Structure prediction request, 374 residues.
Amino acid sequence: MNVVKLQKLHYIDTIRGIAILMVISCHSAQLGAVKGSYLFSAFFSLGARGVQLFFIASAFTLFRSYKGRENLEKRPVQNFFIRRFFRIAPIYYLGIIYYFFRITYDLPYWFGSQLYISKSNLLSNVFFLHGISPYWINSFIPGGWSISVEMFFYVTSPFLFRKIRNINEAFIFLNFTLLIKLILQVFFHSFEVIPETYLWREFLFYYFPCQLPIFALGIMMYFFIEDKTSLKQINTKVLILFFILLFIQVGIKIDFLYLNHILFGILFLIFGVLLSKEKLKFLSNAVIQYVGRISFSMYIIHFIVISWLAKFDLIDFSNLYLINFLFRLLLTLIVSSIISTITYYTIEIPFQNLGKKIIRKREFKFNQKGNNLI
Prediction:
């Protein structure tokens, strides 16, 4: 049987490394005396867009991985879901266990949007369905909204793998996602489903339709990088439609939050293409690439680290907010990277290997069954 092994791309590790550094910088700046500086806080709040950089990298790698395997594996779609489950679930379930006991023993609950965690909320996280409810999407595991969004993209991916075969089809899909996002944005802002306006507006940013254009940009990045002639193939009408949809979303002025992540997504696409062409070598160093490899663990764990820093009053060290931020950021990065290195090698890698083992066995059995029919 053929064993499919794709060449590892170091610039994707770089992208993930920068993404997690952005996210941790954002969350480190949200606490303590740093709030005294509006401009400082506003600047580092943009680090939250690191999540969209993760989405870009995810869509790119998923398309690259599937396209490299679809003609070599007998059951590429089923294998795809096995790989994704064993990539995401182990660490996320570890987070669920941690936060369950943390809440059970009445430890401080951070980022909670409800008075208590219901069984439905817990189960929705287990099955990655918490993204369907404004009360569940980000109330159990901090940052858990992005995991649900990622899983929803996985569900749509096999369809997209079949339908999107070139840059123009990717561009058409991007325009479709912008149109759907725009329609739902206008509708749901006019008819709020729950009484808590802030929670509802937050949900409308976190939920899958609002983030889907970012994945579409990641798919486009795949074609820009893998197909050297893609720029010459772009249909002018498709390009014009894209700018029209973008300007319409600027014009309705509901909230810049619902657009700025897309503008960042466009910049991230360009950034990814430049990295792939080795135009930004100063960013591609061994440290950032290593952080990129353990970035998923760091994403879950850094929330826990920051909350314990707050519990032990390790948030502010002086009267200077910049000094406080730098110490807090450095401490969070060091502790999170140490713990994440442990979880990466003891949980992430073993479970990914387990997923690969299951796939090999399934492929072998399928081949044996086919040979017996001959």
Remarks:
- Residues 107-113 have pLDDT under 50 and may be disordered.
- The chain has one domain: 10-373.
